[in-house]
Amino acid sequence: MRMLITGGCGFIGSAFVRLALDAGHEVVNLDRLTYAGNPANVAEVAADPRYSFVHADIADPGAVAEAIRGCEVVVNFAAESHVDRSILDPGAFIHTDVVGTAVLLAAARQAGVERFLQVSTDEVYGSIETGAFCESDPIDPSSPYSASKAGGDLQVLAAHRTYAQDVVITRGSNTFGPRQYPEKLIPLFVTNALEGRELPVYGDGLQVRDWIHAEDHCTGIWCALIKGTAGAVYNVGGGNEVPNLQITRRILELTGADPGLVRHVTDRPGHDRRYALDTTRLRALGWAPARDFDEALAATVDWYRDHPDWWRPIKSGEYRAYYEAQYGAR
Ligand code: NAD
Ligand code: DAU
Questions:
Q1: What's the rounded Cα separation, in Å, for the pair 311 and 69?
Q2: Whole-structure pTM value
């Protein structure tokens, strides 16, 4: 297959680019290279003759029409992806996650693309006190990020209903692993711990997330892409529900950092208390996550310890201004 993968210079997208090339496919990676897009994430495949890179915005119809030519499938990872940034500035989220998705969908129809896979998130369901969300549950997003992702999902489902476009949506849970931008909980706390900086825990730290390793998330997306039913949604969760404070303590142990670095700070507005996914539908297609959470977390900490060359340059410049805006007054 020739695949258009958008956002392939980001955290999960770059893991998926490697998976697609390893499986013998051709990849066109279209990425705008926002603050979160990092060419280093795909450096090891850059010279592969089956790989090409297009520096463009998914909301740019001309650039997308050109890049999509000859592609059989589109997998859309491109997004503004951080909840806290969406609270500071929702505009970019609406541009990419809603408008960009609609532009990409229309281009895929025009080009006769066989399948469009939208990479979405469990956050579109909102928070759940007990039990787990099924794909048939209503969406009830809490943040500008999750509302934008929900807007993208609705565009995708409407394209199926209106134009009979072949689409599939995956809704993944909290993902971790190497090459994740150090604004999200795990890479932020690991790199702060390695630098001897404070770990800012929001509120009481008893919020629960269901964690999945990036490689397991990618095999789930791959399974839905190849075996999923047109028009269907598939939850992709690791089944590892862990309170934030427990992860924080584990990171302190794994890095050997001082427990006194933990600081409880003002909670995130609209903070979802708990996420949990029922993954029966995707498992029925033969998928299951392969990674043990504790081992994968330890391996992830090792990766950040061994790759300061990857994250130290990121944690300067624009990042410091963001950090001050996000945490300065907390
Ligand atoms: P990321 O922030 O690491 O990477 C996003 C990538 O998209 C970057 O390379 C960026 O340059 C690119 N991009 C942003 N706007 C663009 C635009 N307008 N045009 C082209 N490229 C653009 O994100 P991630 O964590 O790898 O997430 C990838 C996808 O998975 C997103 O759609 C996100 O909503 C979804 N998701 C993420 C998680 C998670 O825990 N990280 C969980 C579930 C779902
Ligand atoms: O659930 C899937 C979603 O997971 C993805 O769609 C998003 O792209 C991804 O960013 C992630 O969203 P979260 O908001 O759950 O992830 P984040 O890493 O920002 O936060 C995880 C938890 O940790 C959450 O309860 C907030 C808390 N937290 C986060 C940060 C950055 C803190 O306590 N302190 C922090 O500094």
A1: 35
A2: 0.98
